[in-house]
Amino acid sequence: MIAINQLTVDFGGFKLFENISYNIDAKDRIGLAGKNGAGKSTMLKIIAGLQQPTSGTVSIPKGYKIGYLPQHMLHNDTRTVFEEAEQAMVEIKELQARVDEMNAELAQRTDYESDSYMNFLSELTEKTERLSMMGGDNYKAEIEVTLKGLGFERSDFDRKTSEFSGGWRMRIELAKILLARPDIFLLDEPTNHLDIESIQWLEDFLKSYSGAVVVVSHDRVFLDNVTNRTIEIVLGKIYDYKANYSKYLILRQERFEQQMSAYKNQQKMIEDTEKFIERFRYKATKSVQVQSRIKQLEKIERIEVDDFDTSALHIKFPPAPHSGVISVKGKHVTKAFGDHVVLKDVEFEVPRGEKVAFVGRNGEGKTTMARMIMHEIPFDGEIVLGHGIKIGYFAQNQADLLFPDDTVFDTIDRVAVGDIRTKIRDLLGAFMFSGEDVDKKVAVLSGGEKTRLAMVRLLLEPVNLLVLDEPTNHLDIRSKELLKKAIKEFDGTAIIVSHDREFLDGLVSRVYEFRNQKMKEHIGGIYDFLNDRKLENLRELEQRKAPQKTASAAPQNIEAKSADDNKNGKLTYEQQKELSRRKNKAEKAVKETEQLIEKLEAEIAEMEEKMSADSSEAMKLLSRYDAAKRELDDAMAKWEKQSEELSKL
Question: At what angle do helices 139-149 and 166-179 cross, to 10 degrees?
């Protein structure tokens, strides 16, 4: 358990935290909530020991292992992907060597009744259990499973990390933390550079993990799926909710309403007291009562309203100029970078007024297609914009096009027209520019701040086709909701490259999946697509059995049909039989391994009970206990591989 005691952080007279106390228990799944600047990332750094508080303490048990993933990091690019991931296993190698050394020593000792022997036995048991929990000799298989889960192909393992983008290198760092099996994960925006499949894999990993998790994320679905406790940081204080993010929002609203009611009552009491003091201040007969009321006011602990309601803030895109029926169309589009083909002979069509999503694993061509639609990069084939189309484009490099000498306010004032000019400060506030921030020069803004400012500016431009590449990466949940509402009400066309399921849910009606050099169209929303993909993943590709002919169908007809099915990408009758046979065999293997795991777990539990009850029995059972733990590790690794093979079938 980690105990945070009376934590205070003071930045030049401004208290980010003030006397905060709470505990993190062994299996907690905590989401840190609060507006940008509330101190969520600072809290993670303090727990990780990377930043010292002004006062207060963080109590961490001896030997407690912390895995911390920051938003931004420096990378070591001298190793391959696999070698870099293997750095997380240094402790396993050292631990294995120590366990082997201690087992050899144990075989030589005969002082069974001594305190020294019992302490030695306790240390060996602890280290053996730790080694078992961390994967033991199976760590290479575990590295492979983890890297593949985060989107790497086996062919990537021997590539230098310098060949990958910052987002992919962040995945390597995440893999190292996951492989190190810390007692607690501290994850700061872990989903920003992951695609949907990798986010779902990470969710499954964290949900089944035996340690604690504290996460900062603007991905609402990720928080709901992973966390069961929410700690909100507001005005230097915290509120602790035993609930995931969506339930926390309901509880927070209830707290806000109670707080507002108490605030109004207190303000009424203060107003009445001040009127009494003012009325009778100079009357000698009332001097005692007046002094009493003055002291009463001085002692009152003023109620602060923690949050404020921006629901009335309503921002819309300007009306879309009239355009043709088709916004953009692609024919025979092919794009390669050197020998690496990203897209091959792709065709697509986006009708006017549609809101569509580009999804798929990183590196499959989503951003490349967005840039080709903008004609920023060369390609083969044809991409045609519809009549009268005017594009509003948002990408990371858009932030670099802002004027560095302009202030934040001036940047928006340049493009704002009409009534919206009276709400510029409200709009900037919704996108986390408040107070003196609006007077900052663009040149001194961080990359994330520039990105958000570019998004605000885009909200004000009259266009009829929006092309948005990962627009939510630097937005908090409230800002994302504002943007989502504005896009839904936009009467033009929108193409959105995103991995944010909650943002896309209810927003898009068509999904283009980028996979295997193609764009596959899915009609429906993002969860319709995900359900379809889940079915496909279970069978590798969803295959429908061909309608069987009558029993008298001639062999040559089957062969003819097989040829046609192969042309259409379907399985032949013989292939279906072979697939069914392999699937049954794989299911049987998984079941047998699961039964073995259950047997070993029961045997280990029984031995642990006996060992804890009788120290002399512990000595007799230790050798079998270690062997059973190793067998269980092997069985678990075997089960993972078998399950992966089954899911492919």
Answer: 140
